[in-house]
Specification:
Number of domains: 2
Largest sheet: 5 strands, mixed
Number of helices: 8
Shape: globular
Oligomer: single chain
InterPro entries: ComF/GntX_DNA_util-trans, PRTase-like, PRTase_dom
Structural class: alpha/beta
Protein name: Competence protein ComFC
Domain Phosphoribosyltransferase: 153-196
Family: Belongs to the ComF/GntX family.
Pfam families: Pribosyltran (PF00156)
Order of helices and strands: HHEEHHEHHEHEEHE
Strand order of the largest sheet: 1-2-7-6-3
CATH architecture of the largest domain: 3-Layer(aba) Sandwich
Helix content: 25-40%
């Protein structure tokens, strides 16, 4: 019996007739329906931020299991049902994942953002890096704002002409702003996509 990659129950757990007729998934319908979606719009520096899910308790628990518990098997869960739409929507763009600290990548054994987008079929360019590995969670609001200057382009890298900036979650937006600041000296077209967005950004 095939199991849901998150709850480990049958992959058919909670299935309706439509679920059984739909494309194969890697998590059961109960878990998939537990992920909250929204059609509200959000912009960073006048660039529309496209996203799939709202960052709520269920998404947070899924992300923690993936990132902090290093459960790489969950990497494909987030965009599995959107991967074909994604590859068509952003055809011709190069994925540029938000950078993680070298320490975190080494600890996990994989770059969690890059891995989430691996099966979208788009080429990736790891051209950004953090100047400091300090976490935003431990900073006050004023210092968090300064984090937009904490990202730079790697030296001797060819910057793509059409870039899709991607991240797992958008909370304050400062990481994305940092990437936009670092890329501002290059003549490139930029779009933004995050897997989930914090609900405070949707009010």
């Amino acid at each position: 019996m095939e199991e849901c990659k998150y709850c480990f129950k049958s992959i058919e757990n909670g299935s309706t007739v439509l679920d059984l007729l739909a494309n194969h998934d890697v998590i059961c319908p109960v878990c998939r329906r537990s992920l909250t979606t929204s059609k509200k719009k959000f912009y960073i520096q006048k660039i529309k931020v496209n996203y799939v899910y709202v960052y709520d308790d269920f998404f947070s628990s899924l992300l923690v299991q993936y990132k902090e518990c290093m459960d790489e098997a969950l990497a494909d869960v987030f965009l599995y049902t959107k991967r074909w739409w994604f590859s068509l929507r952003y055809q011709g763009y190069t994925l540029v994942p938000m950078p993680s600290s070298n320490e975190k990548v080494k600890e996990r054994g994989f770059h969690h953002v890059a891995r989430m987008f691996e099966n979208t079929g788009l080429q990736q360019c790891d051209c950004l890096e953090k100047i400091s590995s300090q976490k935003q969670a431990f900073l006050n609001k004023k210092d968090r704002e300064k984090m937009k200057f904490n990202i730079k382009c790697k030296e001797n890298m060819t910057i793509p002409k059409k870039i899709l900036l991607v991240d797992d979650v958008c909370t304050t937006g400062n990481t994305i702003k940092g990437a936009l600041h670092a890329l501002s000296v290059y003549n490139c077209k930029i779009k933004i996509f995050v897997v989930a967005i914090h609900p405070l950004n949707l009010k």
